[in-house]
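Trying the structure run again after the queue cleared.
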Amino acid sequence: MAAAQAEAFEADYLFGLAAGPRYGEARARLASRARAANKVLAAYNPGLRVTLGGAR
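Done. Tokens:
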């Protein structure tokens, strides 16, 4: 679970850095990484979820 949490937060951090139209493909890959990590996190705690642009 710790690895999934670290992956989700890293994807969120990098998503914030990849601003601008030229990083569209990178943002799509990071969104995919965050979704995969969220699936693992939700299996342990449905309330623990990372959204791109900030944790909720």
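Residues 24-44 form the longest helix (21 residues). Worth checking whether this holds up in the mutant runs.
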